[in-house]
Design brief:
It is found in: Membrane. One of its GO terms (cellular component) is plasma membrane. By secondary structure, the protein is mostly beta strands. It is 0% helix and 46% strand. It folds into two domains: 44-133, Immunoglobulins (Immunoglobulin-like); 145-231, Immunoglobulins (Immunoglobulin-like). It has strands spanning 10-13, 33-36, 44-56, 59-70, 80-84, 96-100, 104-110, 115-122, 125-126, 130-133, 145-151, 154-159, 168-175, 186-190, 197-200, 209-217, 226-231.
């Protein structure tokens, strides 16, 4: 029995032998045998964000986004993600909304729905469920939002932290008008509620106008999202 091996890892095994309690020489090494250990269920935390659009008085369209954050160095390989929802008047298995390998999915829910469940999975099982609660916007707003181009491929966005201090922030950025409607946006969650700004370096190109949105997050609510436009520095 071999101990201390990592899950979902390929190993090459060779053996040689000698006589026990008798004099002798070691044999030559055997041919190499390649083995792969079994997987373990993913051990990750999910940072999540969403956008909602009211389709009619009874239905809302939801775009859910997530980013897996490893909780251990050996986090387990992720093969896909599951999003489910259980109506309050229904028992049994949760209805499946998405089964995807992407980091987002779109689905429709009744307007009164306030929570879905997100899980990562592989052949060994699923991660600990992450409840995604659709927070109402009732918290204090940010103070003044400002931005500055540091170089052609980064933008600094800063703000005056509100009181009481948030538990974190969600920052979104993407091309501003006249970019096509539905152009993809980047997003990031900052868990340190005491910060007063952050540097955006992903997907920033020179000669472009960007729309940046910052939303403060509180324990049971969120503050109103605030927007600002900024040009990346010209080369």
């Amino acid at each position: 029995e071999l101990c201390g091996l990592l899950p979902s890892t390929a190993y090459a095994l060779q053996m040689r032998c000698t006589r026990w309690r008798l004099p002798g020489h070691w044999s030559n090494w055997s041919p190499s045998l390649e083995l792969t250990t079994t997987q373990r269920a993913p051990t990750v935390r999910m940072d999540t964000w969403w956008r909602q659009r009211q389709l009619d008085p009874r239905t809302v369209d939801v775009q859910l986004f997530w980013q897996p954050v490893p909780l251990e160095e050996d986090r387990g390989q992720i093969q896909g993600y599951l999003v489910s929802w259980r109506p309050s008047d229904q028992a049994g298995a949760d209805p499946m909304l998405c089964n995807t390998t992407e980091l987002n999915c779109t689905f429709q829910l009744p307007s009164e729905a306030r929570e879905v469940i997100l899980e990562a999975y592989n052949t060994a099982g699923t991660s600990h469920p992450t409840p995604v609660v659709f927070l109402e916007s009732g918290g204090p707003p940010l103070g003044r939002l400002h931005t500055m181009a540091r170089d052609p491929h980064s933008l600094w966005v800063g703000w005056e932290p509100p009181s009481p201090q948030p538990r974190g922030y969600v920052i979104e950025w993407g091309l501003g008008p006249p970019s096509p409607s539905g152009s993809p946006k980047m997003w990031r969650m900052e868990h340190n509620g005491s910060i007063a700004g952050t540097l955006l370096q992903e997907n920033i190109r020179p000669f472009q106008l960007y729309e940046i949105t910052v939303t403060p997050l509180y324990q049971d609510t969120k503050g109103p999202s605030q927007h600002i436009y900024a040009y990346s520095q010209e080369m």
